[in-house]
Amino acid sequence: MSLRSWLAATMGVLTLVTLAAAALLIVLTSVLDRSAATLGVAFGGIRVSEELEVGLLAHDRMVREGPVKVPRGPGGLSRFELEASLYRQMGELRRIASTEAERQRLDAVREDVDVYFSAQWDPVRAEQEAGPALDAALSGLEQVSSINVERARVARSEAERWNNMADSVGVVLCGLLLLGVLVVSVLLRRVALQPLRDISQSMRRFGAGRRRARAPEAGPTELRDMARTFNEMANSLAHQQEQQLAFLAGVAHELRNPLSALKLSTALSDRSRAQLTPERMDRTLSLVGRQVERLDRMVGDLLDATRIEAGRLELRPEVRDARELAREVVELYRSGDTGHGLRLSLPDVSVPVRADPARLEQVLHNLISNALKYSPAGSTVEVSVRREQDTAVLCVTDQGIGISEEEMRLLFAPFQRAGNARQRAPGVGLGLSVARRIVEGHGGSIDVTSQPGHGSVFCVRLAVATEAARHVEEDAGLTSPEDTLH
């Protein structure tokens, strides 16, 4: 599981708990608001009912004792004003009634009040109907008050029940939230922080020189990828270190051989100076020359590899005919005794390229030298130049030992030499690496086609300088303004 998914799931759970608490708070607020409204209406109904009872009793007193003794009712109202006020209060009580039973009860009370008021104007009816009607109205108002009291009690009970439930659920949600935070903290420490700490410690140990230190690939996907990347980097650095050590050992060995030959040649010359013939002197000087040339080539490859790694390889491109460059290199090898045949295949028309002639000759030298070293004596090495549309192709074909597919993958890597190559010829494995970087610095490419035992074909591909083709044909020595490529 990835760290992002884990954090998303954790935040989702905590968000759900928070939303549940918020929803509970909203529901509780709504219930309490509804209960408060119900209580307000119930209390209003009880108040108005009691005021109606008081008003009716005051009206009955005014009627019985006469306006002389009781000239005004509650609030200083006259009899007619009191009756109008009682009707208004009954209308208000009817308006705030919330149940059908309460409204029917109030309608009955109004009928009883109508009977009571109308009976007061007839002495006969006043004695027979006024008292029962008043008692019925007061009894109905008591029932209305009871209904409102019961409604207030129910609303209060519901509010208390929701409040208790909210308290319980709130406590549970708080517990879940605290438990979730605790679990998230523990899991975060185990799932993310501990693997991250292990990776940090492994990096610190590796930086302190313990090259075998590796990070455990545990925890979320991101941390496993980070640990895997670090381990791959550590393995790569360890492999590079092994390669460097092997390279230093190879360089020391390769330098020792020509130095031993030079030392031996010098010692023989000193001991047998009296018997030193011109023929022997020529052989000794030839041996010294070959060893010095070998040392110079090795040192040159080392310097070029160092410049390439530092990004300071300087190229001074000129527009030159690739045929002339190939001819000059081949003629140089033909002038010596290589023990091989050299065949040069060139087209009839020029193949202009924009390149550093010295560096391109260095590449051809390296390819031809390798072809001669790894080919049997008496075989033929072919150097060809051709043009394929807008590409100049310079190929070196030999009849040597060939290269397997497995060895070909590391052919252009620095300090790498195939098994057969190490047995057939000395070297430190830098020539092809330097050649490839030089060609790539020109914007070209170098590839190889080979089979073990059937020779190899190395081809350098560069862009044709089409804009300068006509000038090259007119003046092969024409060069472009010097610039430097890094």
From TrEMBL:
EC number: 2.7.13.3
Domain HAMP, residue spans: 190-242
Record-annotated membrane-spanning stretches: 169-188
Residue intervals of the Histidine kinase domain: 250-466
Keywords associated with the record: Kinase, Membrane, Phosphoprotein, Transferase, Transmembrane, Transmembrane helix, Two-component regulatory system
Subcellular location: Membrane
One Pfam family, short name: HATPase_c
InterPro entries: HAMP_dom (IPR003660), HATPase_C_sf (IPR036890), HATPase_dom (IPR003594), His_kinase_dom (IPR005467), HisK_dim/P_dom (IPR003661), HisK_dim/P_sf (IPR036097), Sensor_HK_Regulatory (IPR050736), Sig_transdc_His_kin-like_C (IPR004358)
Protein name: histidine kinase
Organism expressing this protein natively: Myxococcus virescens
